[in-house]
Structures are given as structure tokens and as C-alpha cells.
Amino acid sequence: MSYEKFSVADFKRKFPLFSQPENRELIYLDNAATTQKPQCVIDAIVDFYQHSNANTHRSSHRLARRATAMVERVRVQAAAFLQAASPREIIFCRGATEALNLLANSLCSELQPGDEIVLSTAEHHANLVPWQMMAKKNQLTLRYVPDLAGVPEFDRLHEVLGARTKIVSLTGGSNALGLRPDFADIARQLREARERFGGNPRWIVDAAQLAAHEAIDVQRLGCDFLVCSAHKFYGPTGIGLLYGRESLLLAMPPWQGGGEMIAEVDLHQSRYGDLPHKFEAGTSSLASIAGLGATLEFLAGQDRVAMAAHEQVLLQKLHEGVATLPQVRLLSQPQHNLGVLAFAPVSGSATDLMHWLDGRDIAVRVGHHCAQPLIRAAGESATVRASIAAYNTMEDVDHFLAALRDYLSLSEVEESPAVQGLPDWQPDDLSALQLERLAAQRNWQDRYRELMRWGKAITEKPAIRCPENLVQGCESAAWLVHREAGGVHFFALDSDSRVVRGLGALLLTQIDGKTAGDIRAADIEALFTDLGLARHLSESRSNGFYALMRAAVETLQ
Length: 557
Ligand code: PLP
What we know:
CATH class of the largest domain: Alpha Beta
Strand content: 15-25%
Bound molecules: pyridoxal-5'-phosphate
Structural class: alpha/beta
Number of strands: 20
CATH superfamily of the largest domain: Type I PLP-dependent aspartate aminotransferase-like (Major domain)
Helix content: 40-55%
Number of helices: 21
CATH architecture of the largest domain: 3-Layer(aba) Sandwich
Shape: elongated
């Protein structure tokens, strides 16, 4: 099988970040956010600044000619990368977001009120918000591919296509779930809709994720436009590509105005330049374009089929591993998936889990992944996402799964009983918590487990979960209340994170039932450090503890 042809060790060696002493143990599974860069890309950027830095197109001195030639050479490479018919069909943008904004602004300016734009629930915000803005401005209607619990059923696209459909802008692969649509089927449905309704809806593919995992052929796809960002496929940030069919780009008005995109300017009007410069106002990210050139050369030298096969083996293993864990809800599917594992803990907070993994130097992402409608429709507020690149190894997957199992076994400490409908709050009973016992734990894992147990002493208090009691500066939601009786201060707190509840319990053992003088005199930061918490917990967790501490002290004023 072609997978055998891919040497992950050789591939990974090309990425200098992984050979830095501080990153030797790093397991980087946040590739859907951005990928690491090979040495050749870093070198190309440095080389541009060292040898060729000049602004392009505007001047004709030696350096300017050299920089201009580089930009146009990379455009030819980019056309080959996407199999575009001509370099004139390639527009350099800052990234997929800017390319989508360009399309939304330019295409929608030609539409009539009531015209329709079709999107899906799995779109990244970059492929939602620009269309929403344009729909509002021009009274356009947004329609969505039918979905099941947020997951679009692309085979039912035809149900929302009609005579008023002008634009169909769909993901080429979801960053939240990895889900990759069947493009041939989308093309078929669009063809049939054109035959049935006349008109010619434009098909845009958001290939921000796709480009990292598959070779793209825009002519074979049959799309009208396609966007991607270099940083998702081992290239630099600050540079992306917009492909558009030449006849369409010629007919479209430019989006941004400025230098470079004009043929002639007078005081009241301008004549725009030719393609592709008409859409490239201002100075481009020249060093990033140089880096993109190196990236495209790098990818052209790889067996991309073998790379993808390697990624799929890892992805299957991740899904098999997580599917056996009853404590998590798996949201992604291993089939038709570009490299994303997405899941949510059945109980407890996804952020706690992310910090635990971070403590093991495993980088994953937690949140809505800029796909809020999808995550919400799936019944979650946040998911854990592990996303794969070709430099990930089977050891990465094994370590990740082992760390996840460890965390879940730690969290098997029962959840604290919910106290429903509490009219007011009572201080929690913390008498069973012994600092000596926490300090006596032999290693970090045991101490963390003990801290989770402490979190159990903090009961849920719906009555205090309101905006006035929210502690600022804590990454997880945390609420703190205070009352004073006879010069003695009593506190209660709650959080949606078990670790923060544990840290809160630690804080309360130092301040609850004490006088203001005692509280001010307590060296809580020293205790936090002595317990090794400052060293082992992530910065944001430590900040959360200090935020709670500050909030408690502020109540004394
Ligand atoms: N579309 C998808 C599917 C993405 O995953 C992303 C980024 O995560 C974007 C668009 C936006 O890309 P960028 O932030 O590089 O502009």
C-alpha cells in the first residue's frame, strides 16, 4: 500500500520546531488551526529579506525586478498547485478569510434583493459572517443545506437550490469535524439545478482544510472559486490563495481599492488594472509569498497520496481508541474525514481536559472552533479537537490516547451532587480537606487527583451563577460570593471546571471564616508555589487561581 512509501521520520525531520530541546516531547495535534513549517519555508522567508527585499511591480530597479519575478513565479506555482488554467486566475490574499470577504463583497454587489446564497451549518465563521453581512446590506436570503443535528447532509443540497440561488459557498472540509463532502455529488446537484432553473449559481469551495490533505484540481472539481490559506498546509501565515475562473474574475468588480490594482487614476474616477492585480490592492505579503513558493515546491516533492494514507491510518486509530471510552461523546466520524478527531467529555469540562493534556505537552484545541452553529446544534458548547498532519506519528496517537485514558480515570472521582433551586448560598463544608494530605502526594498526577477530589467539596450553586458574581480573568466560568458576620468573612464559589473548583477549595481553606487581617496576611501565592501548582498547572489555570484570590481580597474593601 502506498502508505508504506511515506517515511514519517524523514518528513518530521524537515520541521525544525520539533528538534528544539523544549519541543522534543511535544505532541502537536492542533494542525487544523495551523501547521508547523519546514526549514525550507523558513529559509525562503529569511532569504527574501536578506537578498531580495523590495516592493514589487512599482519600480524597475534590480531588486524590484527580482522581487516582482519571485511573486509572479510563485503565482505560476500556485496555479499548478490548484491546476488552474492560468496564473491570471490566482489572486494572492492574506488567507481564506480575506478571500471569502473579497468574494462576498464583490459578488454580492451585483445581486438583487431576494437573491439567495446557500451555505451549510458546518461552515467556518469565515464562510458565514461575510455572507451574513452582505445579506443584511443587500437584502439577500441565506439558505442552509439540510442538516442532522448540525451535520449537513450534502446529498440534500438540491432541496435548497432554486431559481433565486446565486451563490453556493460550501466547505471543502470542516475544521470542526473533518467532514469532507462528496464534491462530484455537489457538482451533479448544481448541474441539475442549472438545467432545471436556468441561472448559474456560483460554487465556492472553502478549501482551507482540504488543501492540507489532498491535491486539488479546480478544473476537475468544476468549482467557480476556491480559497485556501498557506499556513494550514505547512506554509507561512499572512498569505492565501483565491482561485477564480478567469471569465468570472474579469466580470467582477474589485473589492479593495488602492495602489497596484489600477491602470489609471484621476480625481473622480479610476480605471482598474488587469487580472490578477485588479484584486490585489496595496503591498502584498511579499516575504510570505516567497515562503509560499518554497511550500509549494516542498509539497510538489512529496507523495501526497502516501502522506494522506499515513494520516488516515492515524485518524482511524484515534477514532478506534476514543470510541471505546464511555466517558466521552465522539462527534467526528472516521469516514470522509480530513484528519479531525472531535469529542466532548460526557461530564466535566473540555477545558479541564485540554489543560491536562497540555500538562503532558500534548497540544489540542478546545472550544467551538469558529463553527458555533455546528457545535451548538450538536448539543455541545465546546469540543476537544485533535487534528492531524503528516508529521504526526503513531507514538503521538498512542501517547494522546494514554493521556486521555489517564485523565478520564482521574475524573472518575464522582461529580459533586448538584444542589438545585438553592434559594441562597451556604458556605461549603471544607473540614475534610487536609493541606498536609495534598502536599504529601508523591507525584504530580496524584496531587492533581487529590485536587480534583477537593473540587468535589465545592457543591453546585445555581443561585450564585449570575453575571454579578462572575470572576474576571478566569478562563473557565467561576463565580464567587462573600458575606461578613461579626468581622469574620465567609465565601462560597462555584465553577463549571472541576480543577477550578479544586483550586477554589484550596483558596477557601486559607480565607473562609477568617478576619480581614488574617486574609491579608496569608501568603497564598507562596502556598500555591510550594505545592508545585505554579509549575505544573498551565498559565491560564494559575491565572484563574490568582483571579479568584484577587476577587476574594477585593470583597474586603
Ligand atoms: N475556513 C476553514 C474551514 C478554516 O478551517 C479556517 C481556519 O481555521 C478558515 C476558513 C479561515 O482561515 P484563515 O484564518 O487562515 O483565514
